[in-house]
Amino acid sequence: MALSLFEELKRRNVFKVATAYLVLAWVVVQVTSEAVPAFNMPEWVNTVVFFLGAIGFPFVLLFAWAFELTPEGLKRESEVPAEQSITDTTGQKLNYVIIGLLSVALTYFVYESRFQNTESDVVVDSQQKEEKLATESEQVQAIGASIAVLPFVNMSSDPEQEYFSDGISEEILNVLAQIPNLQVTSRSSAFAFKDMKINISEVAKKLGVENVLEGSVRTSKSGDRVRVTAQLIEAKTDKHLWSETYDRDLDDIFAIQDEISQAIVNSLKEKLNIQANEQVTVASAQKVNLEAHQAYLKGRFYIKNRNQKDLELALVQFDKAIALEPGYAQAWVGKAWANIFLSELGYGDTPTLLAVERAQSAIDRAFKLDPDNAEAYGVQGLIYRQLQDNDQAAENYEKALELNPNNALVHSWYANTQVNDYAKQFELYKRSYQLDPINILVGTNYARALLQRGQIDNAAKVIQQLYELNDTKERVDSLNGLLLQEKGEFGKATYYYYLAYQQNKTTTNRFDYADKMARLGFNDEVAEALNGSEFYLGQHLLIGNPELFISEARERFPRSANDKLGFEILGMAAFLNQDFKLAIENFNKGICQNCPDLLMSYKKAVLDNEFEDGLQALEANLNKQIAEGFASIEHKASLGYLALLKDDIETAFTHLDSIVNRGIPLSRYYYWHWEAEPFRQHPKWPELVKKSDKIVAREKPVYLSLVAETP
After folding, report:
1. Phi and psi for 203 in degrees, rounded to 5?
2. Are residues 101 and 139 both part of a single domain?
3. What is the rounded CA–CA span in Å between residue 149 and residue 157?
4. Is the Cα torsion angle 74, 78, 82, 83 positive or negative in sign?
5. How far is CA 233 from CA 133, 238, 304, in A?
6. Do 88 and 138 fall into the same domain?
7. Residue 301 maps to which CATH number?
8. Is residue 59 one of the residues assigned to a domain?
9. What's the rounded Cα separation, in Å, for the pair 707 and 614?
């Protein structure tokens, strides 16, 4: 009986129909899973397709048993005489269909396994850039209650709406960042994957998170409606914890942001240790005039690029937002931020004091409108840093982190103030990197901290990742120059400082490049690099013309009664002229805080108490660096100067010799400065000069050949 039933099932092609149906259903499910995100369809479409396929299976089997396909059409099996049955022919046709469907399935399987990542991919942009994200850089350990908000895709026909989709992503990120116990990856790292075809699992590993939010934004042609689609994904399982599509009037965009944020919190309640009956309040920034908000988003879009042109564009947009909505606190914060970044010590050419004045005026207004604005405290810290007031800067950074502990930039800025607590400074840099591992500024600071401690390989991994995932290379080139300098490849190092200088002529880039060129003997290029910068007089020191430095400093500075940089330069001029009392007076009005030139001035002016206090503080600071494992060239130079202050010439010379032995040619300072006379009197000075000259002879052609090959 069982055998005859089996034979009858075979004769009626039930097995073949079942096989063909299952293969076809699998293909349809795979096609649907790819089509749903590509056409911005709701996630439930996948569920419906799978459900219908499963429900249809038993009906197909029943149909195959009860009916037969004949030349006259479909007939009940009982109505077809045995001698007229063509089930064998039909079975052969089914074989062809099955083979065809299996070929399609096999083709898809090979494509997915060989040309895609092993886990499901998520298309983030229709352009699907062919960029690999694999890297050997260290991974940040993922935390359960952690999330990265990827940039929402602009699905509108107008590419100018890009700022709007980015802005929605950023606003949701900012709201989530304020939630206790939730680690939120900073904007710059999450946005590094913009316009790339990515694998969610790989991105999550790279960013150190367990959950990823992605989505898209489409505005109507009339410009008054918006569709926002968002989905929360658990990275390790690729499971969709939540997804939703919102079709709203554009005026409701703030409410949409709040709803998405609240839905995410609800999905992560268990990981956030939130009781079922608790309600987490997630209210986005104040509800403002929509046009003003759009101008603000454009300003934020430009400010992230950190170059003078885009910062000026950002300032225009922030001013527009303020004109439309004078009470918009966040726009005032943006205006202050853009102004302080446009200073000569930042990314622009605005005189420092003028930039500070403009920024402070804007930030005062922001605080009046929103006294607990975390970002405002961060920008206030930047203003104090421009004034070289580390204590006030640190106080503001602490307040900013109290209000928003997920702000990676503020962690990094705060670390810059911890010049006497290197363990804390390193932990802050590391935490900043955990929150924002692809941010150029964050990565630069962390890599520098690693280089200070002689961890060259780890620093190189950070730098490599920054190169792979950032379009703006200027900061990374400068950082790579420092890495190569620590490795003793001075010609290559100079070339990368040259690249940074060519891309962005900030005061720092100018001086770093000029210093290396002076050591290689390129005096004309030194003058060219520093002309027009805030520290243009530095060219006279780098090439050995102190008299011109002194005369021009006296003519041009100070520019005002509180010109700290001007008084610092005048202090240097008096120091060069060996007028130590005047040098002390000017240094104390400037930015110098226990700096070596001030200590040497105390020593030469025979102010023993001040000198001893300063010397002990400097020595204690360097001992802290030693305890933290500092091993950089800069650290060696500081140890050498400490020995010089203590009249331990032999030790000072030994440190200088060790620097040259690492492949660094002598600074011109040692050839002409009165302070360096003990080195020039040392019996091994001629030998040291020869070693330095050999380095110059070896590395100068390396630099020139690299520049010649540059397009």
Report:
1. -60, -45
2. no
3. 23
4. negative
5. 19, 6, 27
6. no
7. 1.25.40.10
8. yes
9. 44
Q: Is residue 247 part of a domain?
A: yes
Angular region, 395: left φ>0, alpha ψ -120 to 50, beta rest? alpha
- As given in the structure block, the two tokens for residue 409 are 């930039």
Single-letter code of the amino acid located at 690: K
Cβ atoms of 286 and 328 within 8 Å: the answer is yes
Instruction: Please check whether residues 26 and 68 belong to one and the same domain.
Output: yes
- The mean per-residue pLDDT over the stretch 132-161 comes to 62
pLDDT at 613: 94
146 closest CA partner among 413, 436, 441, 446: 436
97 lies in the same domain as 15: yes
Residue 150 lies in domain: 123-267
Based on the domain organization, do 128 and 246 belong to the same domain? yes
Confidence of residue 339 (pLDDT cuts 50, 70, 90): very high
Same domain flag for 55 and 107:
yes
Mean pLDDT taken over the chain: 81
Residue scoring higher pLDDT (429 or 168): 429
Residue among 290, 288, 266 at smallest CA distance from 278: 266
Tell me what the mean pLDDT of segment 58-64 comes to.
65
Q: Are residues 155 and 254 in the same domain?
A: yes
Q: Looking at the structure, do residues 381 and 294 belong to the same domain, yes or no?
A: yes
**CB distance 172 to 130 below 8 Å:** no
Rounded Cα distance between 380 and 417, Å, is 14
Helix 507-520, helix 523-530: angle, nearest 10: 170
Cross-strand partners of 249: 225
Beta pairing class for 121-123 and 197-199: antiparallel
Percent of the chain predicted with pLDDT > 90: 43
* Residue 564 clears pLDDT 60, i.e. is over it: yes
Q: Does residue 670 contact residue 680 with C-beta atoms inside 8 Å?
A: yes
**53 phi-psi bin (left φ>0, alpha ψ -120 to 50, beta other):** alpha
Kind of pairing, strands 67-70 and 73-76?
antiparallel
Residue 648 lies in a domain: no
Q: Is residue 465 part of a domain?
A: no
Q: Please count the structural domains in the chain.
A: 3
pLDDT (0 to 100) of residue 349: 81
